[in-house]
TrEMBL record:
The keyword Isomerase applies. It comes from the Bacteria. Keywords: Isomerase. This is Mannose or cellobiose epimerase, N-acyl-D-glucosamine 2-epimerase family. It comes from Marinomonas fungiae. The keyword Isomerase applies.
Amino acid sequence: MKLINMEMPKTLHKRIESCANHIFQGLIPNWVSHGFTIEGYSRESLTLDWQHNPVGRVRLLTQCRQLYTLSHATKLGYMSGYDAQIQALFNAILELYFIEGRWIFSRNDDMAILDTQSDAYALAFILLSFSHYYQLTQDSRALEFIELTDQFLDQQMRHPSGGFYEAYPLNEDTVRRQNPHMHLLEGFVAAYHATQDSKYAERISEICELAEQYFVEPNTQTLREFFQTDLSLDSETGHLVEPGHHFEWVWLLHQTYAITGRKQDLVLAQQLWHTATKHGLAANGGIVNSIDGNTFSIVDGDKRIWPITEYLKACCVADISESERQERLNTALEFLETHYFIDRGRWIEYLDANNQSKGFPLPGTTGYHIFLGLAEVLKWRDS
């Protein structure tokens, strides 16, 4: 175990423990205490002092990320005592968001139905969260809804040019994105582990092939974000690249390889790692929001918290030396503690290019990123 490996620097060990305490003794318990309602669902957003922050909608996505985080953290043994909240949240998701045979996108602040679209990005998190909930509880209803969700995607949302539509009802004019496909890949990986059903391995290979053929521009080895209907680059936004998504794909492609054995996934992961570490890390620390994929110049030098958590995940699996891995992890965790984490489990959601807080409240979707980033570091440490 790396925990007792004398080669691990004491500073790195201390940073890992400190960040883990921030999440498992601060962030998650405080969100459950202040962000969960008596009806069982989660608030969409809280203020920096843990008060309700109404934003006009309460999304299915937010509920799923909270269910995933609690289920996975409990299954890994990092949390305990939240079984009732996990069960209540799962039940609330079914009651509030599965309407007339499909998932709706959101309700408003008084929980009246707001947006009835079935959003591919949100459906990805049904797959992810219900898979981890099932592995924790063995509640067969989760398997039923994983199957229903997969069937809905397969029968109602497939795009003739490959991949999936952004949302149902279908809109032919919507700019297409790689992002929902990335999270569907994550969801199918989780569904495969929960069910061992080979059809999810087929879905995984299909999305990885989309990444190779369309999402990654081969000359610059950059993951592009926005596409036309036929998955050619969008004329206005096709140049945009988010380094955080590069790192997310790096980690995911290592997960897909363990299932499918597709060696080209590891090759693509290494290409994405190289580009993002060369062009996406800011000179003053952290990960920039976006760059130009054609010129590699910074487009948005501000820094949300989620990209550095994805960088942590990528650092744990990238094909680099252990000394480089430890150095990168230590630097990233130090930046996370210094610039993002504040007391009582709270965090700064958004930094400007000079590493100053932009004063954002706490979204209910961000804990998922922070938890999984540290969970992967802990998994690496203990491997």
